[in-house]
Amino acid sequence: MTTQREPGAGGLLEAAPDAIVAVRIDGRIALVNAATERLFGYHREDLVGQPVEILVPEGMRGAHPGHRSGYLSDPRPRPMGAGMELAARRSDGVEFPAEISLSAIDTDDGLLVTAAIRDVTDRKKAEAKFRGLLEAAPDAIVCIGPDGRIALVNAQTERLFGYRRAELDGQPVEILVPEAVRPAHPGLRSQYFRNPQQRPMGAGMQLAARRKDGTEFPAEISLSGLDTEDGLLVSAAIRDVTERVESQAERDRFEQQLWEKNVELEKASQAKDGFLASMSHELRTPLNAIIGFTGTLLMELPGPLNPEQTRQLRTVQTSGKHLLSIINDLLDLAKIESGKVQLRLEPVSCLDAIRDVVESLRPLAEGKQLLLATDLPTTDVIATSDQRALGQILINLVNNAIKFTDSGEVRIALHPAGPDTPARITVTDTGQGIPAADRERIFHAFQRSETTTRERTEGTGLGLHISGRLAELLKASLSVTSTVGAGSTFTLSLGD
Fold first, then answer.
1. Could you give the CA distance from residue 128 to residue 122 in angstroms, rounded to a whole number?
2. Looking at the domain that runs over 346-493, which CATH code has it been given?
3. Count of Cβ atoms closer than 10 Å to residue 400 Cβ
4. CATH for 124-244?
5. Each residue of 335-361: pLDDT tens digit?
6. Over the range 367-380, which residues count as b (16 or more CB within 10 Å of their CB) and which as e?
7. CA–CA separation, 473 vs 392, rounded Å?
8. Which of 38, 95, 334, 443 is deepest in the core (most CB within 10 A)?
9. What is the pTM of this model?
10. Which CATH architecture does the domain made up of 248-337 adopt?
11. Helix, strand, coil fractions of the chain, as percent rounded to 5
12. Pairing, β 346-349 against β 231-240
């Protein structure tokens, strides 16, 4: 008989993560540890001296003394009830699935049998969930052990191959492999076990599988390794692709037609971009002339104007500038969509970029009696960016903030990079705010917030879309936070 001598450090017993119950040969409990009290809900003094059957489910108590005697005839370390579903019983009568390991300790007071008891409720739930997922899988799932024998299958495997589950359990997986391939399959299987990565089986090859009736069918098979308490299993997800193979010619024709349609769409997109670019250039020339001549007339260089003439000319000038802005937005969008935006990435001073925008748009803010303020650090932030694109993004953000703010201020802040955050430029206003439902939509082309009032509907709804696309090209990002009625903050997070 192989036994172990009792360790002198009782602290080891108390520190054990499992419940430890030591039982004398008469079946009465000699000692327990703190984990036993926590697991079973008893105080230690309530257990010591009691028959160990107090911890055994009532339905198993009658047979338990016989099992104890059987163990004492060969008291070696081993799991209890190998291959059986074990359970234990708490003080409140609740039973739980358990994993129990037995060993014998020779002490001065005689032989003690120690049971290390672990609650495996969570594991059982996980196993049940795994089996539920396995059964719900649309593909046949076959799990194979290192010896090449089938350890587990799902219901779809039975339907696909025509075998009952019991007929497959423990069989070599080659039972599902076409006869011509069987000699080479063990070698391929062993090779995969040496490096069990998730991947399709036989990439680039035409695979097949074999049913119980001997018929073969084309298959698509995906392999993955699965670590279990019983060791490594390989899971094979098998799909019958007969219909796909039989309709290969039809699918090829469909793919050809799809490719041709994509080519047509690409040509149409290029034609659209070309049209927008061409028309934008054609329209900008006369518009610039109209705006220029209108400005000359308003300066009264040719002669004085009466109030009505001045009012009408200002309307012409405002409309012309608005139309020019729309054309510029369309031209910018066409360039971005066609991939023709030329970026020159270089070190750019963020302080200079912000100051240029403030100087350009301060008259617009003052015209609405808004404060255009800045919060700038004493040390410049140098970003790798395109100076023109960065300036265009900031102009769009500040211009929008001024447009949709009736009172208060628009504030531009520069935040240097932190340990875990990139450098950022924020534009904050005290305007009407943006509802949560609109905060993603406003970055789409030709979209505005539903709270936009009628007098503010001028524009194409392209400004934020263009700004977002330019930010992506600069490896930056644009986001917004907002409170309806209190204002919004747009944040441009700069790239490396």
1. 10
2. 3.30.565.10
3. 21
4. 3.30.450.20
5. 776 666 778 889 999 999 999 889 888
6. eeebebeeebeeee
7. 13
8. 334
9. 0.41
10. Orthogonal Bundle (1.10)
11. 45, 25, 30
12. unpaired
